[in-house]
Amino acid sequence: MTTPEILKDATAKAAHGADAELTKKVAGIIEDIEQRGEVAVRELSETFDNWAPESFRLSEAEIEQIVSGVDPQTLDDIRFAQQQIRTFAEAQLASMQPVEVETLPGVTLGHTHIPVQSVGAYVPGGRYPMVASAHMSVLTAKVAGVPRVAACTPPIGGEVPAETVAAMHLAGADEIYLLGGIQAVASLAVGTEFVDPVDFLVGPGNAFVAEAKRLLYGRVGIDLLAGPTETLLIADDTVDAEMCATDLLGQAEHGPTSPAVLVTTSRQLGLETIAEVDRQLETLPTADVASQAWADYGRVILCADNAEMLRVADDLAFEHVQVMTNDDDYFFNNMVNYGALFLGPMTNVSYGDKVIGTNHTLPTQKAARYTGGLWVGKFLKTCTYQRITNADSSAIIGEYCSRLCAIENFAGHKAQADIRVRRYGNGTADGAVADTGDVATEVTA
Ligand SMILES: [Zn+2]
Q: What is the pTM of this model?
């Protein structure tokens, strides 16, 4: 096995999740909100967002007014994006079929998909108004059939992010709150005077929001722990440096710790891309962020062939993987660790982020080794059921169950089986004498 050559290395180690200091701070804030409720939330909102409205929840009239103030072209664009996302989510939903099978005569086992009953959708603000996050979380939850979606987004510079509110409203949000950060996700999870608690929290956020979600997990479900955006380009000399540099910087602008990496079999493309990145940074309006991300986390890796690019890519397990090579299908058919694939130069990560229809909330920091991203299925619980309508089958299973319970000393479990053997069997089973063996105290089976 050859070793890839590093044409441009990162100077910083990939940012990785929470530190003890952050955990302590966020846990303290959550506890404060649990104890003091809205009073604590108001203090935090005033401190961090300079935001202290009479009500954090927008009324129907306020929402209508905000939406009517949004540029009609913008509303059209939001509707187009949401239609793409809805179409794909509905197709995915249709793939989630119930299952029912007769495993023995009269023995029916099945599963059914039940929507989570309430969802808190956090849409970040801060550096950018994340309009698209409203489609990804609110709309996808509504397509799944979630009856109650409470959406939260922070004010930006003391102003209402009108486009984000419009996107939430058009996506079908049942409640909209102008509230950000830890105070938003904690309010949704634990409930306060102004919002009922939810069952499931979704949506990206900064390090504080991500840590709050991690700490709240268990009390509520969460979609993912979102780290810095990652983008990987797998490219060869079928594309040029201008395209590669554009696609690297396009995602490096997410934040100063966002890794953008090019893996290539072309030394020339690699070197030209490094030069082209510097050239584009001279004019990119978000160069302050993107240049830092590129300097600290950007990499260009030269590989011998497609097989080596595949190994490197699977090892990175990045959130976004864009493939622009002489054999894109090779990567499509063989890659196993990625959040989402973007195949061919005609599409790109930005399409996925904003409009094309696949969900943009995706696994980061190698979570792609064990999960995909947010999708309609994440809002559905796959719940099993069983039924027996044949007495002989009940007795037969009961005899097996009785013996298996005896091995484990579960006397109560054994009795559940034995009574059925007695009632539904032919009277041949030993059901009269209870097992007197030791019984495990923790009954979990
Ligand atoms: Zn992006």
A: 0.91
